[in-house]
């Protein structure tokens, strides 16, 4: 049986090409791997090898023909003893797989088809649980220490985490308790040690990588995004990176443009990553413990200014906070203020002041940005019909933009005013104290936004 | 430093030589078939063939023990076949089908096998180097005596993260063999045009990492060097660098016409230095095998490769639901 030789695809984008030259002639015996022809693709001239063996019975497309579509028969290969006239042709055209027959159910079905899930309003800890005041700093340390006691595969690595006791003293005491095998000082080499931590996670350990600040994680972005976040998918579920990347994120005070940036929106963009950004000490503790146990790469965004702030933390042996569950800090009826991380300080301060003017604001702390608790936000907006978002990050592609889009798609009929996003300004962070204050979001701006959406 | 070569009359068994012949031939024939399937439109995107470099992985696998790990770049088909992964699963991944190692979601550059300790398949040049050292970090943490082979090319040898990794691997004495597969071209850039000093095996000197250059067209030389390197790592002395001089017969990827080198240069390599021909001659001259024996092996390999191509064509495309799976792992 004769076999058709088809015009080959010789580059990822080639749809047609020029058959520049035949290097064999009719009647020649060819074996698999012989160069049959030269073909000009959209990029270059390529040699084309024989797939099968046989005798070139006929050339169907002469040399010099332009615009030959991929998979067009260009020649006929005969078996021994066969002649062109009597040959029956085995078409190679049917090589492509049948198209998948199902239509895809997209995650973004039209708004009308949506039913809104009930938000989870269970308390973070049982009523009557004893609490104590702890700083965010102490809460983070306790979370790591508890998880390291619980699981020998958990270890901490980063710059100055061991002997120096942490650049911001988050890892205070951990070297003494767990030793240098599990609390590891690295050289100043973020790209390299992030890659090593990703490899250790592939190898079954559960690394906690501390960045002295997340600004330095930019050096390691490729390892975080391309290696840690995507491997589970690329391996068809065979292996992934169970690990935590943590450290202070966002502006501190007077440290200039390269050390003052909120990366919440950057990391939240990436499928495969989870992103937590706590405000309070109890959330810092409960979410970090959850992050360390999570079998996926988790970005854990802290804030230097919050490290020293104290909050109530429950006295429980094993206190965790689930991902994807926002916390309502203040109930209200006139407007929903959605924030996370240090943004909560502006949101809560604005709500306090607005209450004096008789405006009742509901304040929601998202706590995790991926997964994102949209149910709690939507349920609140269904009650208040207005929403203002607050974050320190840049305005373009901000988390608030995403919340606005979700509300438009899923709660449009409940909105009585456009959603306003209060963000940091669209400028690199200046050093001068007065300019820095204005570059960040301010409580005043949040209050003005609330007045605007409530038409007061 | 002269490249390590095998002895003129090596002390090697017929069985061992035959195994290397078979393993190298499997890679060659598999890659040729992959090239053909690409031309037929069954494989898309990038497809980096390993033809010419077969002795590198086959020689180093001969020096590996059960439980040792390996990780490499995007030119990874040979590494997977050499460590015992199933040709059907590899070919079906190339065609993007459900039967592929990554259910069709990874492609030519992204395959993994926990069972065979193969950790990918990485598409960003040099990124696998710290990851390989991290695998070795996990082994050292567990004190299990295992070694990780971390493969990268002469192109990747100029990436900054490679040197960050050299520093930490040496500092922490990680059991990792850095295998620089020097095929002399970083895509289309010849080594002398991209590299200020030609000897890549000396790149670890600043970090105190020993290195040697090896003739990568000689499988026995590669195996011997691999044994030295592995022994160094298992003795707790830290990393070791092997610069293995090899040659890629085909273009960088499928759409590369390889105009940056002459046809004569490639032809000369193929005719005079081919790693498979080298073992074939040893088998015949040493009277370890007859022409008929080798023909039988050729036939057997051809059948395996053809079967993998058939499997890869017949395996269905992944179900559309697969689009949404494996993004996050569920907690135990």
Automatic annotation (TrEMBL), chain A:
Residues 89-108 have a biased composition (Polar residues). Heterodimer of an alpha and a beta chain. CDD domains: lipoyl_domain (cd06849), TPP_PYR_E1-PDHc-beta_like (cd07036). InterPro entries: 2-oxoA_DH_lipoyl-BS (IPR003016), Biotin_lipoyl (IPR000089), PDHB_mito-type (IPR027110), Single_hybrid_motif (IPR011053), THDP-binding (IPR029061), Transketo_C/PFOR_II (IPR009014), Transketolase-like_Pyr-bd (IPR005475), Transketolase_C (IPR033248). PANTHER family: DEHYDROGENASE RELATED (PTHR11624), PYRUVATE DEHYDROGENASE E1 COMPONENT SUBUNIT BETA, MITOCHONDRIAL (PTHR11624:SF96). This is Pyruvate dehydrogenase E1 component subunit beta. Gene3D superfamilies: 2.40.50.100, 3.40.50.920, 3.40.50.970. The pyruvate dehydrogenase complex catalyzes the overall conversion of pyruvate to acetyl-CoA and CO(2). It contains multiple copies of three enzymatic components: pyruvate dehydrogenase (E1), dihydrolipoamide acetyltransferase (E2) and lipoamide dehydrogenase (E3).
From TrEMBL, chain B:
It is an enzyme of class 1 (oxidoreductase). GO terms for biological process: pyruvate decarboxylation to acetyl-CoA. GO terms for molecular function: pyruvate dehydrogenase (acetyl-transferring) activity. Keywords: Oxidoreductase, Pyruvate, Thiamine pyrophosphate. Its EC number is 1.2.4.1. It catalyses: N(6)-[(R)-lipoyl]-L-lysyl-[protein] + pyruvate + H(+) = N(6)-[(R)-S(8)-acetyldihydrolipoyl]-L-lysyl-[protein] + CO2. The keyword Ribosomal protein does not apply. It comes from the Bacteria. Heterodimer of an alpha and a beta chain. This is Pyruvate dehydrogenase E1 component subunit alpha. It comes from Primorskyibacter flagellatus. The lineage of its organism: Bacteria, Pseudomonadati, Pseudomonadota, Alphaproteobacteria, Rhodobacterales.
């Amino acid at each position: 049986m004769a076999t058709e030789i088809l015009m080959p695809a010789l580059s990822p984008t080639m749809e047609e090409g020029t058959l520049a030259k035949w290097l064999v002639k009719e009647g020649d015996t060819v074996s698999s791997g012989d160069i049959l022809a030269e073909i000009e693709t959209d990029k270059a001239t390529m040699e084309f090898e024989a797939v099968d063996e046989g005798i070139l019975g006929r050339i169907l497309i002469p040399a010099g023909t332009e615009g030959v579509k991929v998979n067009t028969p260009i020649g006929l290969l005969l078996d021994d003893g066969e002649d062109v006239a009597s040959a029956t042709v085995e078409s190679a055209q049917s090589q492509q797989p049948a198209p998948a027959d199902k239509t895809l159910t997209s995650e973004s079905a039209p708004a009308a088809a949506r039913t809104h899930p009930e938000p989870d309003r269970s308390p973070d800890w049982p009523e009557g649980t004893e609490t104590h005041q702890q700083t965010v700093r102490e809460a983070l340390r306790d979370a790591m220490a508890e998880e390291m006691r619980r699981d020998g595969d958990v270890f901490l690595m980063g710059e100055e985490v061991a002997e120096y006791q942490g650049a911001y003293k988050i890892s205070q005491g951990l070297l003494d308790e767990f030793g240098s095998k599990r609390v590891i000082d690295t050289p100043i080499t973020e790209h390299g040690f992030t890659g090593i931590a990703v490899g250790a996670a592939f190898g079954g350990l559960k690394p906690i990588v501390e960045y002295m600040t997340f600004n330095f994680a930019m050096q390691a972005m490729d390892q975080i995004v391309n290696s840690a976040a995507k491997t589970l998918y690329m391996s068809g579920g065979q292996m992934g990176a169970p690990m935590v990347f943590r450290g202070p994120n966002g502006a501190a005070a007077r440290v200039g443009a390269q050390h003052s940036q909120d990366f919440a929106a950057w990391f939240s963009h990436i499928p495969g990553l989870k992103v937590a950004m706590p405000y309070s000490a109890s959330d810092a503790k409960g979410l970090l413990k959850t992050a360390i146990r999570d079998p996926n790469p988790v970005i854990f965004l802290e804030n230097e200014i919050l490290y020293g702030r104290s909050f109530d933390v429950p006295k429980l042996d094993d206190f965790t906070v689930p991902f994807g569950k926002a916390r309502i800090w203040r109930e209200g009826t006139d407007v929903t203020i959605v924030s996370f991380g240090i943004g909560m300080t502006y949101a809560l301060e604005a709500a306090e002041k607005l209450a004096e003017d008789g405006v009742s604001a509901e304040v929601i702390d998202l706590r995790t940005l991926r997964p994102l608790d949209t149910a709690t936000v939507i349920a609140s907006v269904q009650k208040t019909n207005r929403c203002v978002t607050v974050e320190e990050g840049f305005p373009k592609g901000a988390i608030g933009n995403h919340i606005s889009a979700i509300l438009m798609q899923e709660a449009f009929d409940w909105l009585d005013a456009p959603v306003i996003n209060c963000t940091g300004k669209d400028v690199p962070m200046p050093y001068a104290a007065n300019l820095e204050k204005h570059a960040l979001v301010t409580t005043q701006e949040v209050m003005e936004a609330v007045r605007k959406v409530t038409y007061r | 430093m002269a490249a390590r070569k095998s002895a003129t009359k090596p002390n090697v068994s017929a069985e061992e030589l035959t195994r290397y012949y078979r393993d190298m031939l499997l890679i060659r024939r598999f890659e040729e078939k992959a090239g053909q399937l690409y031309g037929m439109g069954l494989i898309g995107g990038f497809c980096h063939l390993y033809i010419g470099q077969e002795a590198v992985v086959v020689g180093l696998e001969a020096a590996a023990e059960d439980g040792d790990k390996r990780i490499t770049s995007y030119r990874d088909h040979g590494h997977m076949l050499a460590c015992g992964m199933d040709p059907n699963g590899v070919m079906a991944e190339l065609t993007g089908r459900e039967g592929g190692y990554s259910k069709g979601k990874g492609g030519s550059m992204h395959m993994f096998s926990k069972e065979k300790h193969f950790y990918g398949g990485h598409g960003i040049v040099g990124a696998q180097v710290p990851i390989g050292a991290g695998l070795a970090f996990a082994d050292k943490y567990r004190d299990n005596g295992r070694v990780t082979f971390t493969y990268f090319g002469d192109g990747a040898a100029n990436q900054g993260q490679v040197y960050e990794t050299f520093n930490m691997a040496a500092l922490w004495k990680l059991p990792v063999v850095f295998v620089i597969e020097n095929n002399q071209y970083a895509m289309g850039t010849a080594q002398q045009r991209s590299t200020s000093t030609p000897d890549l095996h000396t790149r670890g000197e600043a970090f105190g990492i020993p290195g040697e250059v090896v003739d990568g067209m000689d499988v026995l030389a590669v195996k011997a060097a691999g044994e030295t390197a592995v022994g160094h790592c298992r003795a707790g002395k830290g990393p070791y660098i092997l610069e293995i001089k090899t040659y890629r017969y085909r273009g960088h990827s499928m759409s590369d016409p390889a105009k940056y080198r002459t046809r004569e240069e490639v032809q000369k390599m193929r005719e005079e230095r081919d790693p498979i021909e080298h073992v074939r001659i040893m088998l015949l001259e040493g009277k370890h095998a007859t022409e008929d024996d080798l023909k039988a092996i050729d036939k057997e390999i051809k059948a395996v490769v053809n079967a993998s191509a058939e499997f890869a064509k017949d395996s269905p495309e992944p179900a559309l639901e697969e689009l949404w799976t494996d993004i996050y792992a569920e907690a135990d």
